[in-house]
Specification:
Layout: E1 7-12, H1 23-31, E2 34-38, H2 42-51, E3 55-57, H3 71-87, E4 91-96, H4 105-116, E5 120-123, H5 129-137, E6 146-150, H6 151-156, E7 166-170, H7 187-197, E8 206-211, E9 221-226, E10 240-243, H8 253-259
Parallel strand pairs: 1-4, 1-5, 2-3, 2-4, 6-7
Antiparallel strand pairs: 7-10, 8-9, 8-10
Helix pairs in contact: 3-4
Length: 267
C-alpha cells in the first residue's frame, strides 16, 4: 500500500483566543495528523490541544533562560521539525498566533521548502494585529491611507514616511536590535528613532501604543503619548506604534486638471 504524500497547511489562530479563527482553519487543525503551534500563552496552547491529540509547541526552540541563540537558528530548527513530519506522509498543520504570514517567517520558510520538495503546502489567513488595531482604535485606513514598516527595518534603511497618512511601526519593542539574539530595545535606541521621526513629525505629536488583547476578558492597550515620550514608554513584544497623520492631505492639482476635476468638487 502506497504511503500518502504529506501536506502542510499554515493557519492563523487570530489574536483573541478561539474567537478569531476561521471555520476552515479550525477544521484543518481538527483533522490534522500533527499540529505544530506557535502561540503566546498556555491558554491558547491548551485550546489547540482540545482540538487535536497531537499538538507540538515550537516554543522550546527559542533560546532558553541564560542561553544566547540567534533567531535564524531557531527558525531553521522549527522548519526542520515541521518538514520531518511532512516527509513522513503526515497531514501537518502549523498554527500560528494572529495571521500566519505576517511577521511569521517560519510559515513562509516551511511552505517554500515543502513546495520545493514537491509537497502540497498552503497558507490560510488569520486575523492580524493590524486588523484588530483599526477596529479597536476606530480608524478607517482608507480615509487617508497608511504605511507599514517593521521598526528596525525602518531605522536601518532609507524609508520615507508620508506624514499625511497613518504610519505603523511593528515590533517597536525590539526597535534597533540587529543581532537577532535579544527580545528588547533600549531608551537610547528609541531616542534615535524619535530623532529620525522628528524629520516628519513634531516632538509633541500624539502617537499611540497599541496591543491587541489575547483573551476575551482583556481590553486592548491604547495609550496615547507625545512622540518625545517614546524612549520612556513601557513596551512589550506585541506593542505596535501607530503614528497618526501630522499634515493634511494635499491636492494633486496637475492630475486633477487632467481629469477635469476641481479641488472644490472633492470637498
Amino acid at each position: 500500500m502506497a504511503i500518502e504524500k504529506g501536506t502542510l497547511v499554515c493557519v492563523g489562530t487570530g489574536l483573541n483566543l478561539a474567537g478569531q479563527i476561521s471555520v476552515l482553519s479550525k477544521s484543518y487543525i481538527e483533522h490534522a495528523d500533527v499540529v505544530f503551534s506557535l502561540v503566546p500563552d498556555g491558554f491558547a496552547q491548551h485550546w489547540l490541544e482540545s482540538l487535536n491529540d497531537d499538538v507540538r509547541s515550537l516554543q522550546p526552540y527559542y533560546a532558553q533562560q541564560g542561553e544566547v541563540k540567534n533567531r535564524r537558528e531557531t527558525y531553521e530548527q522549527m522548519v526542520a521539525a515541521i518538514l520531518v513530519q511532512v516527509r513522513l506522509g503526515k497531514k501537518v498543520v502549523c498554527a500560528l498566533y494572529g495571521h500566519p504570514g505576517v511577521f511569521a517567517c517560519v510559515s513562509h520558510f516551511a511552505i517554500a521548502q515543502a513546495r520545493e520538495e514537491g509537497y502540497q503546502a498552503q497558507m490560510e489567513p488569520g486575523i492580524s494585529a493590524e486588523a484588530c488595531l483599526w477596529a479597536d482604535v476606530g480608524i478607517d485606513p482608507g480615509a487617508s491611507g497608511h504605511q507599514s514598516f517593521e521598526a528596525s527595518q525602518f531605522m536601518f534603511y532609507k524609508h520615507t514616511p508620508d506624514p499625511t497618512t497613518h504610519l505603523l511601526l511593528w515590533q517597536i519593542g525590539i526597535a534597533g536590535e540587529h543581532t537577532l539574539t535579544e527580545f528588547h530595545t533600549s531608551s537610547d535606541r528609541l531616542q534615535v528613532l524619535v530623532e529620525q521621526l522628528s524629520e516628519w513629525y513634531p516632538l509633541e505629536h500624539e502617537i499611540v501604543l497599541y496591543e491587541a488583547p489575547n483573551l476575551p476578558t482583556q481590553s486592548p492597550r491604547i495609550e496615547r503619548i507625545a512622540l518625545k515620550q517614546l524612549p520612556f514608554a513601557q513596551l512589550s513584544a506585541i506593542t505596535t506604534l501607530l503614528i497618526p497623520p501630522s499634515r493634511e492631505l494635499e491636492f494633486n492639482h496637475e492630475i486633477l486638471a487632467k481629469l477635469g476635476i476641481t479641488a472644490e468638487e472633492l470637498g
